[in-house]
């Protein structure tokens, strides 16, 4: 079973920031937090990952709490094309077989 | 051109038939994976391979087999398809990134194969 808990769905207005939460209270010291998204029925797409520091790239920002038990993915200016299912995954960095996808959060960006 | 391709993209078959799904990649990655996705659920790992001749079972390998013919090719077979194997199947690849401040390995997914077993 997945090691993360996410809300099943969220809405966001176009142009506003989308903040997607994830709880991972049993995360181990060497486990990273990864985020992927799946648009419609396409293959999942990597977004961002982090260990304990906040991270930012061209797609999103990742905020990890100090105790590492939860995190938030931030899409700073959501567009209609960001409508997708977002998956939060925790796993060791080199143990690539252990990619456990939960049900994710279905984000709907509305005009 | 797509880096990870899957064939066929759609397949309808009957119970008891043997089915092969194929995956090819041009990314030069050593690691390849097969996942299935059922409606409303996340992906579950079927098999994975870290190199040619290396095959490992994933979370739900029963009823499936795989073949890693070359670094670039990884095939999934259903020896005798059954209706509850109706699902969306994804192939993925990855490689290790050593030497960076934080080693990680992003997975790259193919477009998926929609399989229906009647």
Structure explained in plain terms:
The complex is a heterodimer of chains A (111) and B (118). Chain A is mainly β. Helices cover 0% and strands 45% of the residues of chain A. Chain A contains no helices and nine strands. Chain A has strands at 9-13, 18-23, 32-38, 45-50, 55-56, 61-64, 70-75, 84-91, 105-110. In chain A, the strands form two sheets. A five-stranded mixed beta sheet of chain A has the order 1-9-8-3-4, with no helix packed on it. Chain A has a four-stranded antiparallel beta sheet with strand order 2-7-6-5, with no helix packed on it. In chain A, a hairpin with a 6-residue loop joins strand 3 and strand 4. Chain A starts with 8 loop residues before the first strand and ends with a strand. The relative contact order of chain A is 0.34. The model of chain A has no long low-confidence stretch (mean pLDDT 91). Chain B has 118 residues and is mainly β. Helices cover 0% and strands 53% of the residues of chain B. Chain B has no helices and eleven strands. Chain B has strands at 4-7, 10-13, 19-25, 31-37, 43-51, 54-57, 65-70, 73-78, 87-94, 107-109, 113-117. In chain B, the strands form two sheets. In chain B, strands 2, 4, 5, 6, 9, 10 and 11 form a seven-stranded mixed beta sheet that branches. In chain B, strands 1-3-8-7 form a four-stranded antiparallel beta sheet, with no helix packed on it. The radius of gyration of chain B is 14 Å and the shape is globular. Classes of the chains: A mainly beta (111), B mainly beta (118). The interface between A and B is medium-sized, with 22 and 32 residues.
């Amino acid at each position: 079973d997945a090691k993360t808990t996410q809300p099943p769905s969220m809405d966001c207005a176009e142009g506003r920031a989308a903040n997607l939460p994830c709880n991972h209270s049993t995360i181990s010291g060497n486990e990273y937090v990864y985020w992927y998204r799946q648009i419609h029925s396409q293959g999942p797409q990597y977004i961002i990952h982090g260990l304990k520091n906040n991270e930012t790239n061209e797609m999103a920002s990742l905020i990890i709490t100090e105790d590492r038990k939860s995190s938030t993915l931030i899409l700073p200016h959501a567009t209609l094309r960001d409508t997708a299912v977002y998956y939060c995954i925790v796993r060791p960095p080199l143990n690539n077989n252990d990619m456990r996808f939960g049900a994710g959060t279905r984000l709907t960006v509305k005009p | 051109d797509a880096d990870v391709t899957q064939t066929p993209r759609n397949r309808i078959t009957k119970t008891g038939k043997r089915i092969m799904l194929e995956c090819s990649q041009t990314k030069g990655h050593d690691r390849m994976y097969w996942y299935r996705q059922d409606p409303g659920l996340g992906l579950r790992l079927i098999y994975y391979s870290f190199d040619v001749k290396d095959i490992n079972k994933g979370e739900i390998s029963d009823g499936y087999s795989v073949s890693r013919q070359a670094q670039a090719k990884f095939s999934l077979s259903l020896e005798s398809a059954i209706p509850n194997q109706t699902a969306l199947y994804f192939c993925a690849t990855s490689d290790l990134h050593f030497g960076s401040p934080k080693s990680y390995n992003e997975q790259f997914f193919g477009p998926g194969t929609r399989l229906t077993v009647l």
